[in-house]
Structure formats: C-alpha cells, structure tokens
Design a protein that fits this description.
Elements (H helix, E strand, L loop, with lengths): L6 E7 L5 H16 L3 E7 L5 H6 L2 E6 L1 E2 L2 E2 L1 H16 L5 E8 L4 H13 L3 E2 L4 E4 L4 H20 L3
Parallel strand pairs: 1-2, 1-3, 3-6, 6-7, 6-8
Antiparallel strand pairs: 4-5
Bound molecules: flavin mononucleotide (FMN).
The site of flavin mononucleotide has 18 residues, from helix 1, strand 4 and strand 6.
C-alpha cells in the first residue's frame, strides 16, 4: 500500500566491470531497510531517463572515471536528460559516489559542473574510492543509501 508521505529515491549507476553496480545495489538495499516510507528505484544509466528524475525526490549516482572523465554511460544519461531537466525544472538533491581505478577527481569535477548546470543540490560530501571495493567501501555505500533515505523522510533536503 502506498503511504501518503512516501518519498521516492532514484539510484542511477553506470558500471562496466560491476564495482559501481554492486555498490549501488548495496546503497539501494540499505535505503529500503532504513525506511519503508522510501520507494527506491534502482536503474542502470542506460535505462534511466527524465521520467525517472521527475518521479524522484532525490537522486543518488554511482559511476567510475574512464579516461579521466565521467564514464560514457553516465555522461549519456546526463546528456539525454539535460534539456528536459532544465525545461521541466527537475531540480533535485543529489549525492554522488565514484568507484574508480586510481583517481576519480576529474570525473567528479565534470559531474559537479553538470549538476550545477541542472540546478541540482549536493546534499552530502562526494565519495571517491579507488580499486576493488572492500567491506569498508561497501559500508560507505550502505551508509549513504540509508542516510539519503532518512534525509528524504525527515525532509532535511
Ligand atoms: C576504458 C577505461 C578507462 C579508465 N580510466 C580511468 C581513469 O581515467 N581514472 C581512474 O581512476 N580509473 C580509470 N579506469 C578504471 C575504472 O574507473 C575502475 O576500474 C572502476 O572501478 C570500474 O568501475 P566498474 O566496475 O563499476 O565499471 C578506467 C577503466 C576503463 C575500462
């Protein structure tokens, strides 16, 4: 049954070798556990679009850095949705998680510039991790998912 105060959390990820995908799944599970009042939609960037952004109250993004840039699949999602986001004023709170190989800083820089262009608001410190995610990294993803869900429910965003 849908609750009247239900909030919608969109989690979008791009992942080629599975790291960001598994972290996005961990965040989604933690968000669902944190509050049953949050409806979580977890989508690959290739499957996500403006309708998903319009549906959500907040968006959480996971992707790697490739060739010193935002991974192409996530960039494609942002490219496809940019004009509709502006035209429909789909301004959303967001958090970002980048699991990269050895850097990730330029992917974050590029993403933040795009997010600013979309008038999205960053609601937590961006997270960059490198290499194969270990338990600690999975905990970070879970904490982020749970905190975002809780933030939506208590209305701090
Ligand atoms: C084509 C390609 C380019 C990459 N370029 C970078 C890079 O510029 N900086 C970096 O930190 N990692 C780079 N990596 C490593 C990935 O970011 C890293 O393996 C990441 O954790 C993969 O995430 P995924 O398993 O979700 O696909 C690159 C990987 C690929 C396949």
């Amino acid at each position: 049954m849908t609750q009247t105060n239900q909030k919608h959390l969109l989690i979008v990820y791009h992942s080629q070798s599975g790291r960001n995908e598994s972290l996005a799944y961990a965040a989604a599970a933690a968000a669902r556990d944190a509050d049953s009042g949050v409806d979580v939609r977890l989508l690959r960037a290739a499957e996500a679009g403006t309708r998903d952004l319009a549906w959500c109250d907040g968006v959480l993004l996971f992707f790697p850095e490739n060739f010193g840039a935002i991974a192409g699949g996530m960039k494609d999602f942002l490219d496809r949705t940019f004009y509709p986001v502006i035209n429909q004023q789909v301004y959303r709170p967001y958090s970002v998680f980048i699991c990269s190989g050895n850097d990730g800083s330029n992917a974050l820089r590029q993403f933040e510039r795009i997010a600013k262009g979309c008038s999205w608001r960053c609601v937590s410190e961006p997270i960059i991790t490198t290499g194969v995610p270990d338990t600690e990294v999975f905990e970070k993803a879970e904490e982020l998912g749970a905190a975002f869900a809780t933030g939506l429910i208590i209305g701090v965003f």
